[in-house]
Amino acid sequence: MDTNSAVVQEPAVPQWSAEDVEQAAQSVMQAPMPRLDHLTQDYLDLMAQGTSDCPGLGNSIKDNAVYGCETDGGMYFSGVSDYFDESREGQVYKSLAGDFLIRDTLGNTLDWGAGWEITFAEGAAQFRWLGSINWSGRPATSQGISVALSGAQNQGVFQVSGGMTLAEGILELSLSRDAACPLGQGTFSMRGPDKRWYRTELDCSGCGTLRFEGQDLGEACLDPSPLLDALEGPLMDPDWSMP
């Protein structure tokens, strides 16, 4: 037996074409995408319907509701959460983190195992967002989502990187955009039905060569701007009005 003979592996066969990736990406980009400011408004609105006994505080869930409590009006709270909205040395810091479930009187549930934080400074903002969220309370946030994202907006340039899992697909991205490149440029990847990654390096036209396991699958053209809008909006056009 020749112990020095190498095992030759056949190249992987892609299950998606460039057109398939374009269609899958379009489905993801058009999916309802929650905004952090809107999610936070929903959370605080639900918390405002609690009582001094359940969950006890107006913006955070602490020890007395860890195992669940229900108000006389039918609101249910369980788990732990912390919400902050503070000014620190000329910067505004906002965050919401926790592992909790809130159910309103209509049966809608906010199931949260996540954390996010945003820091606002003059002319700039940055965010981090980790974890999973499922909120059935309004269409824009009804789909379950899991994210590991970080990004920043500085002097008109928005950058974001990380990964997302939605009902419509799994993606990774490292993109930047500005007024001269509104569609964004950088790496965009989608996980296919074969559990492998299809990657493209987008230029400002929204197009780039699609690659799969080192193979060239031709050109793919995508429009990530709906996703970028939803992620950048809380930084540049925030709607942080609270109930």
Structure description:
By secondary structure, this protein is mostly beta strands. It is built from three helices and twelve strands, in the order ααββββββββββββα. It has helices spanning 18-29, 36-47, 225-236; strands at residues 69-70, 76-88, 91-103, 109-121, 124-135, 145-154, 157-166, 169-178, 181-191, 197-202, 207-212, 215-221. The chain has a twelve-stranded antiparallel β-sheet. The longest helix is centred in the first third of the chain and has 12 residues, at 18-29. The protein is globular, with a radius of gyration of 21 Å.
Q: Roughly how much helix do the residues carry, as a percent range?
A: 10-25%
Overall pLDDT confidence: 89
Proportion of β residues? over 45%
Number of strands: 12
Envelope shape: globular
Work out the radius of gyration: 21 Å
| Protein structure class | mainly beta
Low-confidence stretches: none
Largest sheet features: 12 strands, antiparallel
Separate helix tally: 3
Which sequence of strands runs across the widest sheet? 1-2-3-4-5-6-7-8-9-10-11-12
Distance between the termini: 76 Å
Give the arrangement of secondary structure elements.
Blueprint: H1 18-29, H2 36-47, E1 69-70, E2 76-88, E3 91-103, E4 109-121, E5 124-135, E6 145-154, E7 157-166, E8 169-178, E9 181-191, E10 197-202, E11 207-212, E12 215-221, H3 225-236
Antiparallel strand pairs: 1-2, 2-3, 3-4, 4-5, 5-6, 6-7, 7-8, 8-9, 9-10, 10-11, 11-12
